[in-house]
Amino acid sequence: MHKSYLIFLFPLVIACNSGKPEIQPGWPAITRENKPWSRWWWMGNAVDTTSLRLAMEAYNKGGLGGLEITPVYGVRGYEERFVKFLSPGWIEHVEFALREGRRLDMGIDLAMASGWPFGGPWVRHEDACKTMKVKTYMLKEGEMIREVIGYIQEPLLSSITRKTLSIQDLKYPVSENSDSLQAWALEQVRYPEELSLKSLMACSDKGDILVLTGKINVFGSLDWKAPAGNWKLYAIFEGWHGKLVERAGPGGEGDVIDHFSAQAVGRYLSHFSEKLGSVDLTGLRAYFNDSYEVDDAFGEADLTPLLFDEFSERRGYDLQHYLPALLGGDITDINRRVLVDYRETMSDLLLEQFTLPWHNWAENSGKITRNQAHGSPANILDLYAASDIPETEGRDQIKIRSASSAAHITGKKLVSAEAATWLNEHFQASLADVKQHVDEFLLGGVNHIIYHGTAFSPQDAPWPGWMFYASVNLGPANTFWNDFGTLNRYVSRIQSFLQDAKPDNDILLYYPIFDEYAERGQSLLRHFDGSAAGTSVRRTAEFLIKNGFAFDFISDKQLDDLEIHAGKIGTGGACWQTILLPPLNYMPVSSLERIINLARDGAVVLMQQLPGDVPGLGQLAERRNEFQQLLSGLNFEPIGVSGIKRAVTGKGMILLSTDVNLLLKQAEIRRESLCDRNIQFVRNIQGNTTVYFLVNRGDQALDDMFPLQTPLGSAVMYNPMTGEFGEAIAKVTGECSWVYLQLQPGESCLVQVYPEEVKTGGYVYYKSLSPPDTINTSWELGFISGGPLLPDPVHVGTTGSWTELSGEVTRSFSGTAVYKTTLSLPDHADHWRLNLGRVAHSARVRLNGKEIATCISPPFTVILSGSDLRDNNVLEIRVTNLMGNRIAGMDRKKQPYRIFYNINFPARDVENRGDDGLFNASEWPPQESGLIGPVTVQPLKIIKGWSE
């Protein structure tokens, strides 16, 4: 079966702090936080206590450790069961779920909106997100503007389900349409209204600038005549962005808040305090914020009422004097500098007016926050750092590491990930696909998997039950549900180690956010997902990952938290060997000064190039002078290594070279060369040991000794798929540690390295005694669970997809079938490898009535012990396929299951769209299902040393 191991290495020199406890070999006890959690959609909040109890018991039995309640849109036909968000009835259901969570030892988180982002019908007009509207006027000397200075907002209406709906069909405000909002599924609404003027300024062709806002009379006219020259006037109006809460359920439809306004955020949080203040929230762990996602609409939320005041206070000059530069109408350098200052201001506001107040509000009620910062128009490293549990999503390793880096630098125990979102087309994602995706997160430093997800479905809902549109349906109706627990045990075992450890990364990679602020792009704001696409820092990060260097990103603000401990850079209880600056243009004076001071205190700093200039416009000459003085104080000299210069600063040094590989070699930064063999890793410190999580990401089987860059006294190997562990075959040659790994493509392991010898049984390695033999016996094929109907049992001469059998019943069947045969094996081996070959899509293996293993991903192999064998053995392979064949059959018969309001099951891939534009599988050929094979057995022997 699919093997994975945990390897724990114990370094001889332990990080920053001494006195680390000794760790005994063995799996830690599994806690609810070690287990994967899941987003739990309450569709229309149409929940009931009986179904809630039964659902939570099933989730608990399936291996989930907790749930995040996220209310979303409802299901057609169940309108009488809808419950309004934050109503007394809804709160009663939350209290019931919390009581059940305490009974079952399951944690509960709560999303602070019905859908996302934060918003709802209680959000006032003045607290809703704003957009900047610009109007310009051209005047010559002596001319006046004869018209009223005003702006009538253009009407806008975006509906998911009613494309012919017009703004005239809506009452004002949106909440007045409550009886129709579920059916309309509104995304954005702007009513035609007169906008308020925020600023009016004039600039001449001679460079004169005048602020004219105060010259608007009570009639809205401008009492001003243009003096000498040609003048361009800029009028800035405060527009209503109109973004509505996405996927909202009953009682949650309304405007999204202005995230940059302390007033708006304060009133939003006060509403929750009022509704939940007297509720027993015992067992509620965290409040959750989904990704920012305000600007995935028409226009941007790029204005807040106090922008000009906040800008002036933070940047030291009046933005109104530089509106042409903000809009790209000045010389290039000034345009960039003003834009940088504007974007930094908005970033500061998002952190200080939303993220931190929300965190403090939760903390005051004894709760924590879980936050998806990606997608925000801000430095997301700082937003993640201000959260108790930073959460990422997606498949990009650089993006994933943005969240884990912030957690590492601030000493947070948990880093979560929204896992299995749009992983494949509907009903085509297997447990193997989910496992592979989970491994990607774990390799990026995530240690708290939260599936996306599980929809509550009442007991009387017909198959396939209620489902969310953008996920792998991880609920009991899924055919693979009975095998889901195997995946969850795998994740739990790994996370039990990773959550109880600290990072053992060597490099702090400086993130030059101001270079990205300076690139205008298509809009005033830039939204950062952490991937740093097209930037120098991404190129450097990709080099580090590919070549086996362990690193974390660090922001300008986080530099202030660093301290030096015996030449190492420490914060949050972890240590790094060096700070690396990628090629960059802009760096604040404070950041450059901090980096130089760290070098003076003993740090080794690596620079791919000297930063070129300070960002922003305010006090530019003064800051440039300070910047140049700092740089001129660095006396770089060649050090005899081609292409490298060194500046000694106090106890430490700064190394400079365009070749990052030379820099890392000169600084003697560890490189895990097993990456050259397509093994990816994450390395942590646990007590007096070092823990490696390793995954074979290549397409070749690995059976060899592999180097680990950690001093080794002994090593313990852990297989998180099977739960096996024991002392690994290991050796030390010179300064290099070696551990024996047997990993098939996609397999993973944990290795724990100790500084001394440990007493535990040896890990079992196998060598084949002869090539595998194919099982050529005939099979009995019987169908035991699933639907829509159970096909009749059949005798087959060989393994293969059951969809190749005749009959629509078989082709449209989704569920579990048993392949049964008898076999005899010679007695010349104590162990045998049973290889199932290709399996569609998970399999349970029974031998002589005994459950041997559950296989959820390639390689589908199982070790059979000779002690379990008889002269004639009954072998049963219970194979479960995916939901797709049954769904396709329903589509061919036009049986309804796409019964949801709002997003009603769109297809991920264009070719799977029906005439109505929604997902349709009626044209699908049958998905391969069953034991495809070939099934082989191979005699094995146990080896106890590399020499064998």
Write the layout of secondary structure elements.
Blueprint (H helix, E strand, L loop, with lengths): L5 E4 L27 E7 L5 H13 L4 E7 L15 H17 L2 E5 L7 E2 L9 E11 L15 E4 L21 H4 L1 E5 L5 E9 L4 E3 L18 E11 L14 E2 L5 H15 L7 E6 L17 H9 L7 H4 L5 H33 L3 E4 L8 H6 L3 E5 L3 H14 L5 E4 L11 H13 L4 E8 L25 H18 L3 E2 L3 E4 L2 H5 L18 H11 L4 E4 L8 E3 L2 E4 L2 E3 L1 E4 L7 H12 L3 E4 L12 H13 L4 E2 L6 E5 L2 E5 L3 H7 L12 E8 L2 E8 L5 E7 L5 E5 L6 E3 L2 E4 L2 E8 L4 E7 L10 E4 L4 E2 L4 E9 L6 E3 L11 H4 L2 E10 L7 E5 L2 E3 L1 E6 L2 E6 L5 E5 L7 E8 L3 H9 L37 E4 L2 E8 L5
Parallel strand pairs: 1-36, 2-3, 2-17, 3-4, 4-13, 13-14, 14-15, 15-16, 16-17, 19-20, 19-24, 24-25, 25-28
Antiparallel strand pairs: 1-32, 5-12, 6-11, 7-8, 9-10, 9-11, 18-29, 21-22, 22-23, 26-27, 27-28, 29-30, 30-36, 31-35, 32-33, 32-36, 34-35, 37-49, 38-49, 39-40, 39-41, 41-47, 42-46, 42-49, 43-48, 44-45, 44-47
Key terms for this structure?
Rossmann fold; 8-stranded parallel beta barrel; 18 helices; 7-stranded mixed beta sheet; 948 residues
